[in-house]
Amino acid sequence: xxxxxxxxxxxxxxxxxxxxxxxxxxxxxxxxxxxxxxxxxxxxxxxxxxxxxxxxxxxxxxxxxxxxxxxxxxxxxxxxxxxxxxxxxxxxxxxxxxxxxxxxxxxxxxxxxxxxxxxxxxxxxxxxxxxxxxxxxxxxxxxxxxxxxxxxxxxxxxxxxxxxxxxxxxxxxxxxxxxxxxxxxxxxxxxxxxxxxxxxxxxxxxxxxxxxxxxxxxxxxxxxxxxxxxxxxxxxxxxxxxxxxxxxxxxxxxxx
Length: 256
Ligand code: ATP
Ligand code: BTN
Description:
By secondary structure, the chain is α+β, with helices and mostly antiparallel strands. The chain folds into two domains: 13-204, BirA Bifunctional Protein, domain 2, CATH 3.30.930.10; 211-255, SH3 type barrels (Roll), CATH 2.30.30.100. Helix content is 25%, strand content 32%. It has helices spanning 22-31, 81-98, 161-165, 171-192, 195-204; strands spanning 13-19, 39-45, 63-70, 103-105, 109-112, 115-126, 132-142, 211-216, 219-229, 235-238, 244-247, 252-255. A seven-stranded mixed β-sheet has the order 1-2-3-7-6-5-4, with helices on both faces. A five-stranded antiparallel β-sheet has the order 11-10-9-8-12, with no helix packed on it. Helix 2 (81-98) packs across helix 4 and helix 2 packs across helix 5 (195-204). The longest helix has 22 residues, at 171-192. The protein is globular, with a radius of gyration of 18 Å. Bound molecules: adenosine-5'-triphosphate (ATP) and biotin (BTN). The site of adenosine-5'-triphosphate has 17 residues, from strand 6, strand 7 and strand 12.
């Protein structure tokens, strides 16, 4: 096996045939003290979730649906960097494994062309001192979906590694590669900080330079060009009149 160098990520790896949502199970386990690096994976999610309460289509056999428990000793304000670090790791995994170069749509979407191939849902919980207790990083990657496998509601906007390459992939091999790549980046990030994540994120992103509309609860609240990201992961958008506004991960969505 090529990928056996990771020490913590996926140790242990708990696999379930079906769960409501791996993020929910991971959070319950983390609350009970389950250690850093544990992965909860499900073949099928009955109620897979995206951001802002949206539904994540997660049928059996078609994708990688898993959540990682992390306990980084960092300031909570930097927790959002983990979503960017995970996106970078996913882009590299898909590139190495399937020879497919995806791009990152801020903050949490993985696209191939205009279509969504994966997504990340990170949820951070603080302890009573205000320090990070744990972060659940939930990852959904569409590996072997064919056109007819997708829920009707996403058939036009979603794609998969199979649809883009014509090859079916062994999901556990993809996960093994991800574990190693993620762990390397995670350790470097803890030791050296955000700068290299940011550089790679910039290289892989397909958000900056684009005209975007910013929506809050479906309502357009700002329009302009996505200009840069800050070290807390927030996005700066510049309007045509030159005013700039900063948006964090919270409640907003962007549309090209
Ligand atoms: P944002 O830019 O705010 O992240 P989004 O529309 O991508 O907006 P998310 O909450 O990130 O919203 O992701 C959930 C959305 O992704 C769902 O509303 C649905 O449209 C789409 N979706 C659900 N399941 C899948 C899937 N397996 N593959 C691709 N897209 C999916
Ligand atoms: C998004 O694009 O909004 C993020 C989607 C994240 C989906 C993954 S699948 C595994 C984990 N469990 C969930 O319920 N959601 C995440």
